[in-house]
Amino acid sequence: MDTHTFHQSRKRFEPLEKKCSFCKTGSNKSKMEDNCFYSVYNVGDRLNLIVFRNVKFKEIKIGIPRCES
Ligand SMILES: [Zn+2]
Asked: What's the pTM value of the predicted model, to 2 decimals?
């Protein structure tokens, strides 16, 4: 992905985009934790793990850029 960077120990994709995806006017200046992170679980019967870069995860998070307000 070229819009996110994967953070191995936090098991999440952190967005590279700073512009807020919610209000479209604000921007996330510096705080990664202001972003909105959605958990993605693999709930399929056959495959129970998400495989990314040869590492298996039961859950990963995908960040959506979000400003403070
Ligand atoms: Zn916003």
From this structure: 0.75
